Amino acid sequence: MAGPLEVKTELRISKPAHEVFEAIVDPKKMSRYFITTGSERMETGKTVHWTFADVGCELDAKVKKMEKDRYVSFLWSASGVEALAEIRLEPVDEAATLVKVSESGWPHDEKGIERCVGQSKGWVHFLCCLKAFLEYGVNLRSGGSKRRL
Fold first, then answer.
1. Counting beta carbons within 10 angstroms of the beta carbon of residue 89, is it exposed (0 to 12), middle (13 to 18) or buried (19 or more)?
2. pLDDT tens per residue, range 84-124
3. Model pTM?
4. What CATH number has the domain spanning 5-136?
């Protein structure tokens, strides 16, 4: 029997791994491309609270493991069920990083496929927004979605 469904996507960002890592774990930086607000910096064992005003959502992320400038994993329920998200940073050279994102935890059924596809779109958007912010100082999320009332 196959394991749970999994999202996998990646994108090269023309910034050193340390800058990319800080943009992922620092809520002040994250609020420039991903979240609206974050309760605190991500650290192993902490639960952080994120708000997404553009889509009328807020949720907690339970940080499972971090390796400075290399890896972040957390459990969250952005898809409606708790799933494990992992972000790996692989230096390409001193000025570029390959960011690999995976998320898993959905069953092989119609609802699981729907959740997996939705998160696939979300993670591609996350990577594009991260790239735009780090390389060009642009917030692609601003005005990108309608708010839910």
1. buried
2. 999 999 999 999 999 999 999 999 999 999 999 999 999 99
3. 0.92
4. 3.30.530.20
